User: What shape does this take?
Amino acid sequence: DSRFKELDKSDVEHFRSILGESSSAIIDGVTQEASNEDLEGYNADWMRKYRGHARLVLKPESTEQVSKILKYCNDNMIAVNPQGGNTGLVGGSVPVFDEVVINLARMSKIRSFDDVSGIFVADAGVILESADSYLAERGYIFPLDLGAKGSCQLGGNVATNAGGLRLLRYGSLHGNILGLEAVLPDGTILDDLSKLRKNNTGYDLKQLFIGGEGTIGIVTALSILCPQRSPAVNVAYFGLQSYEKAQEAFREAKKQLSEILSAFEMMDGQSQNLYARASGAKLPLEEEYPFYCLIETSGSNTDHDSEKLNTFLEHVMGEEIVSDGVVAQDETQVQSLWACREGVSEASQHWGGVYKYDLSIPLPQLYDLVAEARTRFEESGLMSKEDEGKAVLDVVGYGHMGDSNLHLNVACRRYDKAVEKVLEPWVYEWVAERHGSISAEHGLGLAKKEFIGYSRSETMVKLMKQIKNFYDPKGIMNPYKYI
Ligand code: FAD
Ligand code: 2HG
Ligand code: ZN
Assistant: This one.
């Protein structure tokens, strides 16, 4: 974009003066020969679907460095792309052209933890799994968990307002985050690192950064309220004959497990078959079923929780809501049952390409979309019934049923416009007609830029643009993305 300055030697020298000479602070393909290989991990996204052409990656170590970098970029019209663990699934985490990548990986300090209130304060570059392990040692849990926990960063989680596997229990980051520190495009440091649960003094500005996808500033630290870790955790995995049965099971789980229910996930048979083929793992149940659910309970009393879970399982099996099931007997089994759910996302891109949709749909209609998508592929001639399960094209549905959040993944051998045409804009129209959301948790990024109107009115999009222009009048923050 000719509005933005092309990087030259003087810019790189300036960034070096901010960051110092440490080789881990800067990957320079402008004045030095950083190879494409060095830059690849920052330019290509997790799905290998979006690829930018950044020639400079900056890795600040402190909020002050982020501030100096942004001020210089703003003064000189240099476009930037904030980046965390680069596990985002909508193309928002990588540049489109040659934006400067500002990667937060080196900002990885835990700043404080109060083991009475459970308030945890950390830099944005802390890896989610590291934060959770730190809290586990102190009897607490990070109130967010997701399959990419080993790579994603807290700042990226905030910027995408990640939902994950336990939102049902702990709620959204909009509620758990107590304070943020962020740097605005002109270098201003917004210190709102509050540790208060209650603070009704005007607009709650931090909420704009939660789910802001790096379009109005860079999150550099957060404070978050963490709950006690439950000593008794049980996981059950069961097979069901229909989606209606899965809904009945969910209703019973809420009724009978009530306060100890911490996750309710749904996977269709095709998604489990795909996971087994891609990973080589054996599925937990002997027979195959059209649907599977995974339930997790977390409580403080093992005997009490096991009794509740067993009563629930006896009931749902007695009533023939559930056809067969297994309860994990130890931590290894807990992990392997969870892997059947968490592993689907990665398995779906095993054969080369994948089209991912992350949707909020009213629960009774949630699975209709998957069934209709299969029909559309059969009618298009791109998939026949015999192809199913042979990795030519797999249409799989799974997700956070407890949050009415479906993940529709269409796995194929390579990215193909013909496949995309069957899906878009049909998926978005379908969801809009049912008053759902075209992004339940992954955000809009580049992938859904054109489609925001399916979930937000013109008035709301206009207001969003005004907010963006107010915070980032020169438009340097993550340009070309959804706003
Ligand atoms: P990145 O991918 O690096 O960035 C994501 C966006 O945030 C980009 O727009 C980027 O510009 C911006 N950003 C990053 N850091 C900052 C910062 N410090 N300040 C401002 N902006 C910033 N998501 C869910 O909601 N639920 C799930 O269950 C879930 N499971 C996943 C499982 C797998 C296997 C994978 C690969 C992804 C999954 N995701 C899930 C997607 C999810 O968005 C990310 O995993 C995570 O929240 C992104 O964090 P990240 O550090 O990788 O951010
Ligand atoms: C999950 O719940 C993630 O596993 C990823 O949100 C979903 O890959 C996907 O579509
Ligand atoms: Zn998800």
Summary: The pocket of flavin-adenine dinucleotide (ligand 1) is lined by residues 46, 81-89, 92-93, 104, 124, 146-148, 152-153, 155-157, 159-160, 162-165, 213-214, 218-219, 345-346, 441-442, 445, 478 (CB under 6 Å). The mean pLDDT is 96. The longest helix spans residues 302-318.
